[in-house]
Write the structure tokens for this entry.
Amino acid sequence: MIFDTVATLALSPLLLFQALRVRKHALRLPEAEGPRSGILGDGPPLHLLVIGDSSAAGVGADTQENALAGRMAHALAVQHTVHWRLIAQTGATTATTLTRLQSEDLPRADIVLIILGVNDVTRGGPRAIWLRKHTALRNLLRTRTGAKKLVISEVPPLGAFPLLPNPLRWLLGRRAARFDIALRRVLADEPDCSYVAFPNTLDVNDMAEDGYHPGPVIYAAWANELARRILSDGP
């Protein structure tokens, strides 16, 4: 932690230059098109709510059917009648999501999937504040949806994102890893929470053309891993 702080201070002019350059020249892809709710399958009902940022919104896929929420719904529909809904927005942080959901009409859900963290990491806020906001978000979702299970996906490994140049990529990767470790420690004390890591088969060559978001192949593998965990744990 001290090493990273010193490195950040020493490299701050270069890091600022790289961050501004990435922001200026990054390819901005739209969110996936298509319905953000639906019913699929034939079996015991399962109500799924997906909350998150641009990856949850399907940036990098053409349609929601090929993005994370749609792929998950199809995977879960093998055993259930899945009632699913997606609430996600590009650029969302844990804090902005919490504020939005406080005034949102949330559906009843058996399982809530939370895809957040990358924007919290890149915007440089303190980890302790992020953890408090994440805890508040989980509590709100429990209260407002009646969810029996909260599924939290790994904080994205920014150190593997091709868009980011080094040393910016290296430092953000280390920061993302620290956020992820801290979150796992907190979730370990909450029996209704399941932390799910990314599949170790993911290949950076399958990322979207912006070099920052998942492509359809990654969305499919990610969704299948999340669905596998949900089905093995039971709703």
Summary: The domain at 2-233 is CATH 3.40.50.1110 (Rossmann fold).
